[in-house]
Amino acid sequence: MTDHSAVIAQADQGLEASLERLFELLRIPSISTDPAYKAECRKAAQWLVEELDSLGFEASLRDTPGHPMVVAHSTEAGEDAPHVLFYGHYDVQPVDPLEEWTTPPFEPSIVTGADQTGNITGRGSADDKGQLMTFVEACRAYRAAGEKLPCRVTILFEGEEESGSPSLKPFLEAHAEELKADCALVCDTNMWDRETPAISTGLRGRVGEEIVITAADRDLHSGYFGGAAANPLHILSDILAGLHDENGKVTLDGFYDGVEETPAEVLKMWEGLGQTAEKFLGEVGLAVPSGEKGRSILEQTWARPTAEVNGMIGGYTGAGFKTVIAAKASAKVSFRLVGKQDPDAIRESFRAYARSKVPSDCSVEFQPHGASPAIQLPYDSPLLATAKEALSEEWPKPAVLIGMGGSIPVVGDFQDMLGMDSLLIGFGLSDDRIHSPNEKYSMTSFHRGIRSWIRILAALAAKKAAA
Amino acid sequence: MTDHSAVIAQADQGLEASLERLFELLRIPSISTDPAYKAECRKAAQWLVEELDSLGFEASLRDTPGHPMVVAHSTEAGEDAPHVLFYGHYDVQPVDPLEEWTTPPFEPSIVTGADQTGNITGRGSADDKGQLMTFVEACRAYRAAGEKLPCRVTILFEGEEESGSPSLKPFLEAHAEELKADCALVCDTNMWDRETPAISTGLRGRVGEEIVITAADRDLHSGYFGGAAANPLHILSDILAGLHDENGKVTLDGFYDGVEETPAEVLKMWEGLGQTAEKFLGEVGLAVPSGEKGRSILEQTWARPTAEVNGMIGGYTGAGFKTVIAAKASAKVSFRLVGKQDPDAIRESFRAYARSKVPSDCSVEFQPHGASPAIQLPYDSPLLATAKEALSEEWPKPAVLIGMGGSIPVVGDFQDMLGMDSLLIGFGLSDDRIHSPNEKYSMTSFHRGIRSWIRILAALAAKKAAA
């Protein structure tokens, strides 16, 4: 077992330099969904390859039909050490609306938050560059302390996580042998609160879908045609309004097939976390849970499926007024899935429902935007117990096991294609505003995150050695 | 009674010169909504003053806080002759998207259309410079024939019709005595088809309203918050979808107060026009009337009130996908009114309905965008009968009385402020593409329009003399 207190001391001493490296990465606007930023995505990948190279990894950039992968290996721990695959993504979300940012999204800085702690600002600071750099910097601390990494480590960073990961499955398939490990470490998750680390054991799945309704072959004057011509905004509103019933349940045929009730002991564990609607929604200026009636806020967001409209546009949306009946209207809709819900069946059910609402002289088109089933990880794995203990040593409060409302499709892919479970450990906070203007990552998350990985790698190795 | 056949002969002989004068006016880019064209608006007004001056009118340019009015008087017909106020507007719509014009918008020309008839091209050719010049050139033909105008004529041309007419009401109020006449002639309307002239006897009113729903104080991640946080796009869709029932009726409380059934004889007259849903909607690629069930297409667009969503936006609407729950969503909604529907009551009813649908932790704001009641002109006025007869003499087919789905607020202002009904007679065609690229005005509309006014002025005078 390595003496990881020396490594932790290195992490503490090197924090400022660690931060400067993170800033370098944050300055690269690697927005994967927008083709205009293709070169920037590659630049971020290349930056990571060089970084890992400098840490003694055998690192390389791997081209895909989309943005490149970064793969790196460290085998210095030897054959007997545990082998982990660390996964993260270097791409980021778009930054609109830009005018709402109080600091430029790609000029990171440290801003003192309302709670008097420092926050790292910028797009990707929390999702996911800040998080993945906690692991990279943990590796650096081992090197700086003159220690070997205690585990064999493979690193996989992708550049398409924010745009549906189209290249991921083919890449995993083609490189299954190279990427297989004892378990994956996935860092794209949150703590329970700023003092309490968490391991996520459930992840909702996701189906993304775009719907475009076309009515007339041109925009019409609503005086001449109003009352006679089909209005695609009416049709679309009707479709979207009909997705939920008065109790907040989704109305699609077969939508709840495969949804199971959460076990009583799990619900009890969640109750113990003391979350309330007031606290959870109060942070974003809301108060009333809008979802399924009769479910706690944690159940609503961790264990129940949803339908959400993520965007909608049609007709005249500029200043002033224009009496137009639009030719087209469109919306982006996503479904969060739990249990054994089948993403393909849900997509088809949505399409059949929408088609049934479209008049015969209008048309509807659909475009899929990703699909992944929900994931449930075992509560009783020894790896999980070890990581939980290591985390509990680092933070003021012991680690807890939680669910996650978001989707991390790669976890399912690791299960299905590499036969490998994941440990979902990240240091994000619920107020990090990921995907929103003014995204930030707490300095504490970054610093203690680095220290946490140092401890976890050491603990996993010690556990295996003791077995 | 003047021998108007000589005047008509003059109009025929002078057609080429009439056209050249119209072209001069069309070359002036008098776009009222764009401050960059302020001087051009004034130039168009000045051009009209000089034109009317040369015809023996006592014409003047009158400054307003916005673009100037043109007022002109001809009293040579004497006190016993009928007195008409002719209204038109010299301002035009913007021309964007410029690249869709096949001829430059301010370089008028004659282009032979698909139907082998000549069309006058250019912005304002139909709306409204071509139309108003039919009247001016009718006056010129009288003068050229050495005849007095048979009616006392007051002319009012405004320069802000395409930008909401902010100066019109104050001007009418300040000059009520000067502008009052037996009736107004308003030329901003269409024929029934290219062979059948029409007088519009009903105009729908309009209420414009913008609604903004705010939920959370920031955009949220739909994974973390979906199923718990209010989604303004759901709330707005629900509000908009609920505006109509399954029979296409508007559901707002009191919405149909003041709506009267169209008299059976009027419905019968409309039936005689032979309009069908297939023809009307077929022109724009549609087939199925979307409005109130059990009403003909003409009733739906002329005599029934509507609610239309003119625009809607919220969330992520760019390329790709973003799993966001928007903080805000907004829509622009307009109501077309008929009969005695009260615009203010309808606005309030909409607001009360919308408020009732907004959860207590979300907020809703409204912004009004104009309001005008519907106009119904008497079917039995002797002036209307006289004009109808005169029009029927000019055109291949007899004139018909029609409704209009759009709104012309000045007609209501003339009623309310000058106590004067209007005759709505214009020679536009439904394919003139007003407000769009490649606006045109048929040569037949222009030529027979001039001849029509010659006949109408003569007929009105003869009718009064005979009474």
CATH architecture of the largest domain in chain A: 3-Layer(aba) Sandwich
**How many distinct folded domains of chain A?**
2
CATH superfamily of the largest domain in chain A: Zn peptidases
> What's the N-to-C terminus distance of chain A?
13 Å
The pair of chains with the biggest contact is: A-B, 96 and 86 residues
Low-confidence stretches of chain A are none
Gross morphology of chain A is globular
GO molecular function (chains A, B): metal ion binding; peptidase activity
Organism (chains A, B): Pseudohoeflea suaedae
InterPro entries (chains A, B): Cyt/Met_Dipeptidase, Peptidase_M20, Peptidase_M20_dimer
Pfam families (chains A, B): M20_dimer, Peptidase_M20
Supply the key terms.
homodimer, 467 residues, alpha+beta, Aminopeptidase, Alpha-Beta Plaits, 2 domains, 9-stranded mixed β-sheet, 4-stranded antiparallel β-sheet, globular
Q: Can you characterise this structure?
A:
Chains A, B: It comes from Pseudohoeflea suaedae. The structure is a homodimer of 467-residue chains. Chain A is of the alpha+beta class. Chain A has two domains: 292 residues, Zn peptidases (Aminopeptidase, 3-Layer(aba) Sandwich); 130 residues, 2-Layer Sandwich (Alpha-Beta Plaits). Chain A contains 15 helices and 18 strands. In chain A, the strands form four sheets. In chain A, strands 1, 2, 3, 6, 7, 8, 15, 16 and 17 form a nine-stranded mixed β-sheet that branches. A four-stranded antiparallel β-sheet of chain A has the order 11-13-9-14, with helices on one face. In chain A, strands 4-5-18 form a three-stranded antiparallel β-sheet. In chain A, a hairpin with a 6-residue loop joins strand 1 and strand 2. The longest helix of chain A has 24 residues. The first copy, chain A, is globular and about 80 Å long. The mean pLDDT of chain A is 94. Chains A and B meet through strand 9, strand 10, helix 7, helix 8 and helix 10 of A and strand 9, strand 10, helix 7, helix 8 and helix 10 of B. Strand 11 of chain A pairs antiparallel with strand 11 of chain B, so a sheet runs across the interface.
